[in-house]
TrEMBL record, chains A, B, C, D:
NCBIfam families: aroC, PRK05382.1. Keywords: Amino-acid biosynthesis, Aromatic amino acid biosynthesis, FAD, Flavoprotein, FMN, Lyase, NADP. Its cofactor is FMNH2. It comes from Maribacter algarum (ex Zhang et al. 2020). GO terms for biological process: amino acid biosynthetic process; aromatic amino acid family biosynthetic process; chorismate biosynthetic process. Homotetramer. This is Chorismate synthase. GO terms for molecular function: chorismate synthase activity; FMN binding. One of its GO terms (cellular component) is cytosol. It catalyses: 5-O-(1-carboxyvinyl)-3-phosphoshikimate = chorismate + phosphate. The lineage of its organism: Bacteria, Pseudomonadati, Bacteroidota, Flavobacteriia, Flavobacteriales. Its EC number is 4.2.3.5. Belongs to the chorismate synthase family.
């Protein structure tokens, strides 16, 4: 209810504030008998961690996950998997610019209004640091979903947009550059642009695209919990996300039905895939693909005027080491959330037929 | 779990197939003591019902709702509100074109794959007829949310796009035309266009925009159940929806943080509203606004080739009386789903502080 | 949340007041492809219905269930099963003795306090009439659980206690008498006693025992949702229930561990069954057995003093046709709730192992 | 779903195996602004911890809880409270008697059947060690429920039964002896008896009674989630519990309605309290009282024959330091679970009326 749990059968609950003692979570419902590759989990965390390249925040956090339960002799036991990532970067910052004033387009103001007060250190619970816990659970989900391939990548930064269809990209190149864009030329342009934006003390938005291959037919529930509705919620729950579209998306509204409809081949596959791999909320076996829009990071290293708790105007400035563009580090988060959704529906689908 | 329930505290469960005996639902958790305006509920149903104008399906269904429980002496009792809408239009259609073959971009194929068989009459559970139950519950939610104004309207049909900002529109005009577009000129163009598309036996997509005013600060949960994430899921769960964006949305990715950030006035309101009324997943008291993309209706009255259950090619054609464009009738559905989300968070918000 | 839903995967939501238009429910998550025996469902309702014998209330209600959805061509479709039982016995009673005063040991007072007002007709939502909806869903659960045998029976009425172990009873005799006690002699004594109590205008309590045979190993979840914990909750949620014990129960507290422990046979079965078929919250394949204590019905046809809404003393008397002893009619309710629990865990168990 | 979460609005999820790295949990939904008394939490853990007296297991575990999140400047923030208790007693035991064989009346066999394998060390997840996490969350719940007094105490050990009504006991004496029985004479007898049982290498069962005072009217939901049903589930979810009864309980079945009914005083209180403070599933403001039956601990230090995984007979013996009687240490667990139930319903009750 309080919104810190995701999933029903494959269920993740997270806890932790940015600068508290630890963040972490409990993954409940992971089936017993899954061999866990701990290195693969840490590798996903490393894709998300700060300080990994020149175009992300230079904050240092090793983000080492400790597992407390639920794994025995290398395999999941069917009992809850408790884990924690201790915050090593809790040095006594100067938080005076946050403590008593509200940074624009951050959650400071609404937290104070909703809860009466807040843990202001580093954004507290509203920090995207929480997503590290999602990446841990998502990495386990990926291992459970062995055959399914989830490929997220950066397709837009500011105005720089990768116009190619995903079919024309080599998705194995995503990790070959710091931006995580599978087109080297575009990646280079994006990198140069992000550096320029950072130099200005500013930030810029972007889009992550995701393609999911080898999805079995039948995942997703027909009414409120449509597969794409849950994917949409999953993505919109990631910090800074402003939009989600799948298949033909917003462009599809301009099409006529006769052109938009995906005609069947005799094996049940479709000749086109405007549906984006989902029909009536249920996967149809074609590739699932979707776009996720991220706004520019709110923390800019430029002076600005804002208000304090009493509504007085105060002059302030972003401090610390922040991301000029969030999308390179958000790629593994998008994949993790997609994996959590698919894992949940995979288990649920076992209960559908007599 | 099986996906027919929406909400946690203000919780709607729906049932019913397009051509079964009745559709309906149970609304649980509606607080006691709410005076129910039954006419207002029926009016919302009338906004959604078939046959209401020249640009929607000419099928006739009175869509009269019967309440079975939970309302006594004109007020909610705090017990579940059970209701049903009997299907009056169950005449013995010829379903042979649906029964054994799969209509492109419909849910026929995936239902058969998922469940082993399906109620093929009129699309069964996958029909948008189910949304009538949502409108009933949403109408009750609206009554509970008295002060909050939820205004959905059609902002795009095909390429015809209303470029004005919602602040420059008179939203009271939405119901003044059949398209439900608050700009009369644009509404006329859209209507002409929809009629032309119908004449071709084709269909066209569109966008519904929604503006929610007078939202109190503090609605929404900070992590997985962010207000906009739940709104997004709610919208994506409506039949034919392909995308959702709020605030600056997909366009916002092109902006820099310094421009995107919403500076505060001394009363906590913001000078701009790129945030779309939500910060960190929690309402900040500014207008909430979002766009919902609808694909063109899949049922086209044109001949096409598809496959039957055995994968054989069959020649077929859409029959019956279908909508050439879904958005005019979907306006009350968008509002209903928004109302359900807000009602749920309104109740939850009572539990947040000591 | 508001407590009108039971189960997670095999999930029943009920609605309806005693003297409203209809009671009913939605059963969501029943797997597709189950052939439904409608007669068997009605037969279960008939075991619960008023007026069925000389020792129950003589109120007349046919309790005919109508199914609105989720069943097609005789089989479940995997979509929600909506159903209703219209109340035929809504004649304009004189409710003055209930409307403004609080009957002792009824829910009148607490409903008014909790909700601000109440539907006072026949007890409204607090009436055991609601359990008819449970019997409908339970009957479907029974059909899904084909191999499992759920046998509830009356084992005590007042001081009249069936001392025999269930192994020494012929459980097929339960339906051979009006009391639903599988021992004919004891049944006759109980029947005589109940009639005598009724003649006094009084009521008497009783115990229902339940034996579940052929349960597969592995049902139940190990911590909060132990099989017996959920069974316990299910039983305690039935009107008038005051206690639940399984296996050795309250008597078991007097035993030493060396005597209480159930030693294994080489096939995993146990020589004794103090565990009651459940170990660590999980079924072990042995018979599950438990007892459910029902208090005497609160409505007595004797004059008594009580209070009205203002706290004034009022003299009143039970009216209408009430059960002198609730256990004969509660036997199918106990079975229905047990079936709902087992159906839910049966589905969940499909998700436990990789 | 997988059963490691308790509560809806005040929601505890626990993790951890007896001899894993740590046990712990996440408490989500605790309202913001609650001042947390950490010493009081530790004190509750100390009431439950091993080695606290001569009549419990002499195993040494400090059971020190660390909080990771959700508490800031001494108060809850409204975000999830993550906590862990590291297991210090993980020395390399000899588990050969458990690893390959099934201890009678333990969960060894069913875990292997359900999950395919198990963490056999010290009982793994099935160990009552998990309840320490419940005590942590329950202690927070108690602090939230400031005015409500929850008093559990031992009322029976083997045949030794405290016959006095709770009104005739001084419940402040519960902590004055190692048994936690508020009657000194009976406590002394029980203590002597437990020591004798332990000397035999055997164990004995017992009953914990619980009285809850100052409960506001209106807690509990009317149908499936009746207050006593949820309390019953909470208690039955505690290791070794075999039965639950409240108010008149199993004895009440022998009473007639005219005697059992609780007549009202003019202030809404009742002259008697056979209802046990709950009517129609909703608290009525009178004392809530109930009994919880605990079977004798299954681990006996006596030789016995059992089976191994292949069904071969093996001769074995309980090892280690186990409780001869579980009830003294279970008193704080009963209180914790009661507190969790009441906290959940307290929050839910804020949403019931308009």
């Amino acid at each position: 209810m309080a919104g810190n749990t995701f999933g029903n059968l494959f269920k993740l609950t997270t806890f932790g504030e940015s600068h508290g003692i630890a963040i972490g979570g409990v993954l409940d419902g992971c089936p017993a008998g899954l061999e866990i590759d701990l290195d693969a989990i840490q590798k996903e965390l490393d894709r998300r961690k700060p300080g990994q390249s020149a175009i992300v925040t230079q904050r240092k956090e090793p983000d080492t996950v400790e597992f407390y339960s639920g794994i025995f002799e290398g395999k999941t036991t069917g009992t809850p998997i408790g884990f924690a990532i201790h915050n090593t970067n809790q040095k006594s910052h100067d938080y005076s610019h946050i403590k008593d004033s509200y940074r624009p387009s951050h959650a400071d103001y609404v937290y104070d209004q909703k809860y009466g007060f807040r843990d202001y250190r580093g954004g507290g619970r509203s920090s995207a640091r929480e997503t590290a816990s999602r990446v841990v659970a998502g990495a386990i989900a990926k291992q459970m979903l062995a055959g399914i391939k989830i490929n997220a990548f950066v397709s837009q930064v500011g105005d720089l947009r990768l116009e190619k269809s995903y079919q024309d990209l080599d998705l194995t190149l995503t990790e070959s550059n710091d931006v995580r864009c599978p087109d080297s030329d575009m990646a280079a342009q994006m990198e140069t642009y992000i550096k320029a934006v950072r130099k200005e003390g500013d930030t810029i938005g972007g889009i992550i695209s995701c393609v999911i291959q080898n999805v079995p037919v039948g995942l997703g529930e027909p009414v409120f919990d449509k597969l794409h509705a849950e994917l949409g919620k999953a993505m919109l729950s990631i910090n800074a996300v402003k939009g989600f579209e799948y298949g033909s998306g917003f462009e599809g509204v301009k099409m006529k039905g006769s052109a938009h409809n995906d005609q069947y081949n005799s094996d049940g596959s479709t000749k086109t895939n405007h549906s984006g791999g989902v029909q009536g909320g249920i996967s149809n076996g074609m590739d699932i693909y979707f776009n996720v829009a991220f706004k520019p990071v709110a923390t800019v290293i430029q002076g600005y005027e804002t208000i304090d708790k009493e509504g007085n105007k105060v002059q302030t400035q972003g401090k610390g080491r922040h991301d000029p563009c969030v999308v390179p580090r958000a790629v593994p988060i998008v994949e993790a959330m997609a994996a959590l959704v698919l894992a949940d529906y995979t288990l649920l689908n076992r209960t559908i037929q007599l």
